[in-house]
Amino acid sequence: MVEQTVTLKNRNGLHARPAALLVQTASKQSCKIWIRKGDKEVDAKSILGVMSLAVGAGETITLKADGAGEEAALRALVELIESGLGEA
Amino acid sequence: MSTPRAVPVHELVRGLGLTVFNPDANLNRPITTVDINRPGLALAGYLRYHAAERIQLLGRTELSFLRGMDSREQALRVFAFCSYEQTPCVVVTRGEAPPESLLREASSRGLPVLGTTHVTTRAASVISTFLEERLAPETLVHGVLVDVYGIGILITGSSGIGKSETALELIKRGHRLVADDAVIIRQVSDNTLVGSAPALLQYLLEIRGLGVLNAMTLFGAGAVRTHKKLAMVVHLEAWRDDVAYDRLGIDEQTVRILDTELPSLTIPVRPGRNLAVIIEVAAMNHRLKRIGFNAAQQFSEQLADAIEEQMDPD
User: So which cofactors does this thing need (chain B) (predicted)?
Assistant: First the structure.
């Protein structure tokens, strides 16, 4: 199991479209992936779960991956978030 | 992952609209128990078993007792009473004002003195209801919660296995959706778990290819519920030929959520299996078992009788 903390850069936070992109990317991975904000942790492959976190701009979230290809999956998601999830 | 079990005093003040007699006191003191103490004996000087960590509720009895003392004695008792750092706050009921000495002593210790207009027993029940709700252990699980024939069923399984699709089919069959994808589960009392949707996701359902849907606007108010007591867990998993699935249903499996064991079933998923029907039947079977009729158990007993008869022909 690997995990990494990232800061969300998107100006408007993790609203519907960037969240969908994040979930789509997570769903392509075969390992299990979770996102944690504060004491709430959700399945990163679940769009409603991810949106329920209501992550705001500048907030930090922790990504956690477990299973085959966890390193690569985590890297792909961190890069995606750092690149601004198709927005910046 | 359960939430820390403490409520700061200012949340109690805001939640119940209480008066604060000493606003400069420490309103961040944590309330860690739902129990309430009426400190009559403590004020009479008996402090060996004083439940200091509870909210201290002063009603007419305690107040008139305090007022009846001479001022030296009153100061002494109040000094001892306010000296506990674990006491979250003092609440004075019936809209009464706290005695001067109590307010002075509490303020110097940072102990909040609050007021309510309720009579004491009513105040106690309002406060404990509020705290029970706030202090209930809570967890967020990935799954779908549906009410099927009045049985709260939590459907779990990995992403993409078909939980939401199963819920959709169940809604079409007249059952109710409580939460899709993320379910907040709270331990409201011993052995009782109640699930609800995160506020943002209420009534929402996500179906691959369709996107986010609102079950209430699509199917009506009868298709949704805001919360439901959990009765069983149905775990969906991809069919694997090397796994032996339960064929009899005699042994009851359970899973643990927070501090409660819930009966659970593992249903293998394969194209062509109608999961909604299987879950409906699981719900009905669960009800039957509760009523006291266990088909698997009864069959097994009949079989045992039949075998015995064969072995003993006369």
Answer: Mg(2+)
